[in-house]
């Protein structure tokens, strides 16, 4: 049910503001169609579709160069890349991760009979709180997986210190952090390795895809074996493995999207600035900021709705959805409240107060190359009008 009226003069691409196409979080960014079709033609001509083909090799080189890291091992998706990295590192027993992340971080461990132990986050940065990590270490702990949530670096130095002190392996789920840096160093250079996702909804996509970035030669070699059933040469299997390979057509999409990356950053940054400007004076509403001295992809516009705001987070989500604006409550309610973890570890929430609060106040807003200024202004208008209605204002707050 519609909750507010959008002013008729707010045209979106010249169309009626009551647009039929929903505005999604996660609309894919797609580079040049012509180049993609050219690459697809080359793939057909070559009849080399998978198994470490030339496009995958070129793609890996370019992604590694982009992140200034020695190795990029491309995979079929981010989840399998996480699973392979976890296995290649020899993690077992318990591994500490945030609960405030996409479920894949936890599943990649559970899938391999490793216990994900959920540590709380910093309520300001939304990334692992090093002190909370220390509290969760036991004799069974073998590793820590930090998540660079929203593309903002985890506290890598503090986590590395903890890992070194306790003899733990440290790796990162960098699914959101393609092209981002931390203290001037590109993501991909922290911990033993870092895992990217190239899912359709990500800043950078290969339809589906993922990769592990590492500077460790031996680990890179092991993961290359593991993603291809452990094959070394034609009839020689020398390692346990699975099928984690990226296919050629996915790499082609990646090459095309690498060429378009500056445009995507530009669009995301423009959208982020509009949101920032237009929402900044609404009491109880704030946007998560980015350190502009770093490389950022600005892929996630994260709005937080404080407890003293005139509307609740869920009222905002409801109003936006009623207007076909599919904003998301990422990563509510936290992995520990989802199965099987809610049943396996029913008391995990006792140590996760910040996670509970942050998960209860976040709304992720649509952005990307498919959303123009007019669309962003409609999203803003819905939020402003809703706040205006609830604060008893006689008329909607003007843009
Ligand atoms: N670690 C972290 C921290 C992650 O965030 C993720 C993935 C992973 C690991 C695992 O990486 P992958 O194995 O996925 O490579 C989406 C994505 O499926 C998931 O990749 C992503 N994180 C997560 C944050 O978002 P959902 O459940 O929100 O997907 P869904 O189907 O609801 O799509 C989101 C929105 O995007 C929808 O409103 C529709 C729109 N959309 C989606 C697709 C696929 C499109 O417009 N076009 C499309 O092609 O998880």
Could you explain the architecture of this structure?
Helix 2 packs parallel to helix 8, helix 3 packs across helix 4 (103-110) and helix 9 runs parallel beside helix 13. 36% of the residues lie in helices and 14% in strands. The chain is α/β, with parallel strands linked by helices. A seven-stranded mixed β-sheet has the order 2-10-9-6-5-3-4, sandwiched between helices. It has a three-stranded antiparallel β-sheet with strand order 11-12-14, with helices on one face. It has a two-stranded parallel ribbon with strand order 1-13. The protein folds into two domains: 8-25 and 261-327 and 366-388, Aspartate Aminotransferase, domain 1; 33-259, 3-Layer(aba) Sandwich (Aspartate Aminotransferase, domain 2), CATH 3.40.640.10. The longest helix is centred in the C-terminal third of the chain and has 19 residues, at 261-279. The model is unreliable at 10-18 (pLDDT under 50). It is globular. Residues 24-28, 77-79, 101-102, 104-105, 147, 173, 175-176, 197, 199-201, 210, 326, 330 line the site of ligand T4K.
């Amino acid at each position: 049910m519609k909750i507010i009226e959008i002013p008729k003069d707010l045209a979106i691409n010249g169309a009626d503001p009551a647009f039929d196409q929903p505005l999604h979080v996660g609309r894919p960014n797609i580079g040049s169609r012509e180049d993609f079709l050219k690459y697809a033609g080359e793939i057909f001509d070559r009849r080399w579709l998978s198994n470490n083909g030339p496009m995958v090799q070129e793609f890996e080189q370019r992604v590694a160069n982009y992140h200034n890291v020695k190795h990029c091992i491309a995979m079929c998706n981010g989840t399998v890349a996480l699973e392979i990295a976890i296995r290649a590192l020899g993690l077992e027993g318990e591994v500490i991760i945030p609960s405030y992340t996409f479920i894949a971080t936890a599943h990649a461990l559970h899938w391999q009979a490793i216990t994900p132990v959920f540590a709380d986050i910093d309520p300001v940065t939304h990334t692992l709180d090093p002190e909370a990590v220390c509290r969760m270490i036991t004799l069974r702990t073998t590793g820590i997986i930090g998540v660079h949530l929203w593309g903002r670096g985890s506290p890598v130095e503090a986590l590395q210190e903890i890992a070194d002190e306790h003899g733990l392996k440290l790796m990162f789920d960098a699914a959101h952090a393609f092209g981002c840096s931390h203290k001037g160093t590109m993501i991909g250079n922290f911990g033993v390795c870092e895992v990217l996702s190239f899912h359709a909804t990500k800043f950078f996509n290969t339809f589906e895809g993922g990769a592990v970035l590492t500077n460790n030669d031996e680990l890179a070699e092991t993961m290359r074996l593991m993603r291809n059933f452990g094959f070394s040469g034609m009839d020689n299997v020398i390692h346990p493995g699975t099928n984690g390979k990226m296919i050629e057509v996915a790499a082609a999409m990646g090459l095309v999207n690498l060429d378009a990356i500056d445009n995507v950053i530009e669009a995301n940054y423009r959208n982020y600035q509009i949101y920032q400007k237009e929402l900044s004076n609404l009491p109880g509403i704030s946007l998560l900021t980015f350190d502009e001295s770093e490389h950022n992809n600005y892929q996630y516009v994260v709005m937080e709705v404080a407890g003293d705001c005139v509307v609740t987070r869920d009222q905002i989500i409801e109003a936006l959805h009623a207007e076909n604006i599919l904003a998301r409550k990422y990563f509510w309610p936290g992995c520990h409240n989802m199965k099987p973890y809610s049943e396996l570890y029913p008391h995990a929430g006792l140590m996760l107060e910040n996670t509970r609060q942050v998960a209860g106040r976040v709304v992720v807003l649509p952005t990307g190359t498919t959303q123009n200024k007019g669309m962003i202004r409609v999203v803003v208008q819905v939020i402003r009008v809703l706040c205006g209605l609830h604060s008893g204002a006689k008329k909607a707050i003007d843009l």
